[in-house]
Specification:
- The protein has 2 domains: about 30 residues, no CATH class; about 190 residues, P-loop containing nucleotide triphosphate hydrolases (Rossmann fold), CATH 3.40.50.300.
- Strands 6-7-8-3-9-10 form a 6-stranded mixed beta sheet, with helices on both faces.
- The two termini are about 30 Å apart.
- Helix 8 links the parallel strand 7 and strand 8.
- Helix 5 packs across helix 6, helix 6 crosses helix 7 and helix 7 packs parallel to helix 8.
- With about 280 residues, it is α/β, with parallel strands linked by helices.
- The structure holds adenosine-5'-triphosphate and magnesium ion (MG).
């Protein structure tokens, strides 16, 4: 390490963690980001996670020995070609499916060993899922759609309506709560689905191609909703094919043939003004 760098390192040791110091000491050419710091146990801890489908005599390795940590409050996006295992990984993280091998801990709890009832319980308490095709009940109003997860949680009706109303307010749709899905625009339908995912105050918001069925302007609107939610501390994981959507994440994971092949960190490079405060 050069002398000036050593000096900066000594000066800034009081203010910066080892992760930032490590980044500071690297030139762009050899910059390979380590995992971001995880002060406590990571919210999501995946080790050697594999999912193999047996199709007659052929085995499909949908997910192949994936290791991954995600801290609370992170905004992570997942990219990769069709068939690379993105939805498989999301379904495992979202407790919609169980792995063939490997382990998955959510907030320290070993999820990969739970039975179906226990998984359903974790899903209801901790996971909010947003799908490409919205998956709303067509005959129910926006309010009733958002109330649905609370019925499973056995929340009393009056409290249900109040919580659902608040979730719709969070996505700026309080004035559409009596509309059925057919009486809403595509972007509004997806916002109802986001409100439904949020109404139980989940630990993680998972979205699999949330903008896949929307035009680009409406997609941007949805991304703004995610950005705002992330600003309130919500942990968010989004699968997308769209580079613009993935650029909203602080970390981009690239999957290929069921393997995590690359990880991009989008933390802004440190500048002196950030180091010492702008004057
Ligand atoms: N239920 C299943 N039975 C058998 N094979 C499956 C099943 N689900 C997924 N697969 C296979 O596992 C692989 C990964 O599928 P997955 O749906 O995770 O891909 P993806 O990255 O989400 O693709 P896309 O971008 O098209 O949504 C694919 O080859 C797929 O054919
Ligand atoms: Mg998919």
């Amino acid at each position: 390490m050069s002398e000036p760098l050593q000096e900066v390192r000594n000066l800034s040791r009081m203010y910066l963690g080892d992760y930032d110091l490590w980044r500071l000491s690297k030139t762009p050419d050899d910059y390979r980001p380590p995992k971001p710091p995880t002060p406590q146990t990571p919210l999501i801890e995946v080790r050697g996670l594999s999912k193999i489908y047996q199709m007659g005599t052929v085995q499909v390795r949908a997910l192949d020995e994936v290791d991954l940590d995600i801290a609370a409050g992170e905004y992570v996006t997942i990219m990769g070609p069709s068939g690379s295992g993105k939805s498989t990984l999301m379904n495992l993280i979202g407790c919609l499916d169980t792995p063939t091998s490997g382990s998955y801990r959510l907030a320290g709890e070993l999820i990969s060993e739970l039975d179906d009832d226990q998984l359903a319980d974790i899903r209801n308490r901790r996971i909010g899922f947003v799908f490409q095709t919205f998956n709303l009940l067509p005959r129910a109003t926006a309010l009733s759609n958002v109330e649905l997860p609370l019925i499973y949680s056995r929340i009393p009706p009056a409290q249900r309506a109040e919580q659902a109303h608040r979730a719709l307010e969070e996505v700026d749709l309080a004035d559409r709560m009596d509309h059925r899905p057919s009486e809403l625009s595509g972007g509004e339908r997806q916002r109802v689905a986001i409100a439904r995912a949020l109404v139980t105050h989940p630990s993680i918001l998972l979205a699999d191609e949330p903008t896949g069925n929307l035009d680009s302007k409406t997609g941007v609107e949805i991304m703004h909703v995610f950005k705002r939610l992330h600003g309130t501390g919500q942990t968010i994981i989004v699968v997308t094919h769209d580079p613009e959507v993935s650029a909203m994440g602080h970390r981009i994971l690239h999957l290929h043939d069921g393997r995590l092949i690359r990880e991009e960190s989008r933390l802004k490079p440190l500048t002196t003004s950030r180091l010492y405060g702008s004057r």
